[in-house]
Amino acid sequence: MVAGRGADPVGFVSAYRPPAQPHTAFIWQVAVAPEARGQGLALHMLDHLLARPALAGCRWLETTVTPSNAASRRVFESLAVRLNAQCAERTFFTKEDFQDPHHEPEMLIRIGPCFA
Predict the structure, then answer these.
(1) CA angle in degrees (0–180, nearest 5) for 105-20-18
(2) Which among 63, 65, 81, 102 is placed 20 to 30 Å from 93, CA to CA?
(3) Which residue(s) pair with 88 in the sheet?
(4) Domains in the chain and their CATH numbers?
(5) Contact (CB, 8 A) for 78 and 34
(6) Cα-Cα-Cα-Cα dihedral sign, residues 50, 56, 24, 3
């Protein structure tokens, strides 16, 4: 999904339904242009994405976020509240899983059950 302001793209969300988890929507990436940040665009795009027919039957939403990415963490915590769903977190990739020794771990955020 791409969000635009006039002819200019200002945000996008990419997601898929993992074949082994048909009731889960995995949010791969959320990006918002610097000039559009702080206006609720990420949450707005996620709301529209989750309303799409392609996600009918999904009860869970998953994504990975690094511990220092406070903005993304707030977006997904806010989404869980809006969906009246639980939000759980666990380590998905450790820092040792990455070739870059400075890469942070990736935490799996799982929201649900929702989208009934």
Answers:
(1) 60
(2) 81
(3) 110
(4) 2-112 (3.40.630.30)
(5) no
(6) negative
**3-state DSSP of the chain:** CEEEECCEEEEEEEEECCCCCCCEEEEEEEEECHHHCCCCHHHHHHHHHHCCHHHCCCCEEEEEECCCCHHHHHHHHHHHHHCCCEEEEEEEECHHHCCCCCCCCEEEEEEECCCC
pTM: 0.88
**pLDDT category of residue 116 using cuts at 50, 70 and 90:** low
* C-beta of residue 25 within 8 angstroms of C-beta of residue 15: yes
Nearest to 90 by CA among 101, 106, 75: 106
**CA proximity to 16, closest of 48, 63, 84, 77:** 63
Q: Which residues contact 72 (CB under 8 A, 6 or more apart)?
A: 30, 42, 63, 65
What is the identity of the amino acid at 51? A
